[in-house]
Amino acid sequence: MDITIDQMVRRLRESRNPAPRPLTRLEWILLAVATAALFAVSVSILGAVYGVHVGFAFGISALSTAGLLLAPVRPRLAILLHFAGTALFPFPYAIYAEAWPLPVPQLISLSLLLAIIALRETLTLSIAAWLLNLAAPALALILLGLAAMQVGGNVIPESSSLIAITIYTGLIVATGYNLSRRNWSKRELVQAKRTVEIEQERRMGAEERSRIAREMHDVVAHSMSIVHMQASSAPFRVPNLSDEAKVEFESIAGSARAALKEMRTLLGVLRLDEDTALAPQPHLSDLQALVDGSANGGIEAALHLDTDRDPSTLPDTVQLTAYRVVQEALSNVIRHAPGTNAEVSVMLLGPELTVRVTNSAPPVSTEDRNGAESDSNGSGSDLALGGMGILGMRERVTTLGGHLTARPQSFGGYVVEARLPVAEAAQTPEPTQSAPESEHA
């Protein structure tokens, strides 16, 4: 698998700072319930135990608990809000009561906030949230200690509580961060296994393509080369050939050369040959030569082009697909209905390219001569091979989001029509709903 430098840098950054996953709906509901419960309890305790004014109690509780809902999406803002609530509490605390540096609801909300930050964010942000939210009660204890020294008191109980809170919340940060790295390592392991599986599938596919390419080269290409050599040398090997026979042999040799060229292109694609991948592919401008060459196969074909703009401006994939549809359709006419007339129509009007190939009803003599090879319904030898011609055309067309129909005509003959979208935006291919169709006669 080819990996660019940018991809390597991005993966390195992700390994250091893995992106947190979004919370599920159930997790959001549980978090909202916990926030509402902590808010209600905090307001009650601040008012009842610490004697804080109800307005002040609502403000401190809102700042301390609102950060829980913001932590999964706005962690820095959540940290600042909780810090504001923690920093405001020492003022009424120092006035009204002597108790822990943090009320129990604030301690619980701080623990949840640190757990969320540690599980989802970086270690640096987790430590910053931990130290920032402990700075306010530590500063309050220092000021309270200075005041107590003037009156002969002490703040040892509060200091011990702050140390215990610091150790407790520090363990939460360390545990949460280790769990997050463990979960991230598991996800990376799963992704690495998937990457290895994909790479193995690609390698197996490449090996299979290479095997098919070898078979085609050793069997098909060799046989076609023999046909080309026999047709090219026939005028020199066979005495007293007429001019018509020499022209026919030359036509056969030309068709064999073209087929060998197509075969080399196909072999290069199967072998992932870079030179072949860069070779020019047939376009709509090559249709005239294709239609003219069909006369060598025993049919008369005509091309009609109706466009409102230059066909060469179409995407290469659309032009190649249209060319292959015409090529396969004419090949079917040559195989199953020699002696008929074919008409190729290419219409480019608006956002759609329509390619239609029709042929007239085969002569009676042709049907009698072919017998089982073509019947009145247009089925022939290609159907005996599974109808791969129409199947291949349909796969090409549907890949581009188009639609292909192939059906017999009521007055005889056959029609193959492909509609290809030519808009720049990619369109999702729709499944073909038409009934199974047979090859045309």
Automatic annotation (TrEMBL):
One matching Pfam family: HisKA_3
Per the UniProt entry, the Enzyme Commission number(s) are 2.7.13.3
Q: Which CDD domains match?
A: HATPase_UhpB-NarQ-NarX-like
Q: Which reaction does it catalyse?
A: ATP + protein L-histidine = ADP + protein N-phospho-L-histidine
* SUPFAM superfamilies for this protein: ATPase domain of HSP90 chaperone/DNA topoisomerase II/histidine kinase (SSF55874)
The Histidine kinase/HSP90-like ATPase domain is annotated at: 319-423
Q: Per UniProt, which keywords does this protein have?
A: ATP-binding, Kinase, Membrane, Nucleotide-binding, Phosphoprotein, Transferase, Transmembrane, Transmembrane helix, Two-component regulatory system
Signal transduction histidine kinase subgroup 3 dimerisation and phosphoacceptor domain ranges (all copies):
208-272
Enzyme class, UniProt record, top EC level: transferase
Q: Which GO terms describe its cellular component?
A: membrane
State which residue ranges cross the membrane: 26-46, 52-70, 77-96, 102-120, 127-149, 161-179
Output the InterPro entries linked to this UniProt entry. HATPase_C_sf, HATPase_dom, Sensor_HK_TwoCompSys, Sig_transdc_His_kin_sub3_dim/P
* Full protein name: histidine kinase
Starting at the broadest rank, the lineage of the source organism is:
Bacteria, Bacillati, Actinomycetota, Actinomycetes, Micrococcales
